[in-house]
Amino acid sequence: MIRQVVEPNVVTYTSLMDGYFLVKEVNKATYVFNTIARSGVIPYVQSYNITLTNYVRIKWWMKHFDE
């Protein structure tokens, strides 16, 4: 997409995040979520919902708050 000068939008980023979470690529999904903010695109509520739902589902938060 970038090679063809097509700017990804919030739907593109959210779809990528959802796909990465489905295959348990949490770091890549988190990177995409952070890329949304850096690119100046305003995330939808669904973007946050997908992220939080999957963090809870895979117990990601336990790894980071048990320390």
UniProtKB/TrEMBL annotation:
Q: Which Pfam families match?
A: PPR_2
Q: Which domain of life is it from?
A: Eukaryota
Ranges for the PPR repeats: 9-43
Keywords (alphabetical) are: Repeat
Q: Is this entry keyworded Repeat?
A: yes
Kindly list the residue ranges recorded as spanning the membrane.
none
Q: Which InterPro entries match?
A: PPR_P_subfamily, PPR_rpt, TPR-like_helical_dom_sf
Keyword NADP attributed: no
Member of which family? Answer: Belongs to the PPR family. P subfamily.
- Alphabetized PANTHER family for the sequence: MITOCHONDRIAL GROUP I INTRON SPLICING FACTOR CCM1, TETRATRICOPEPTIDE REPEAT (TPR)-LIKE SUPERFAMILY PROTEIN
Name of the protein this chain belongs to: PPR repeat protein
- In which organism is this protein found? Medicago truncatula (Barrel medic)
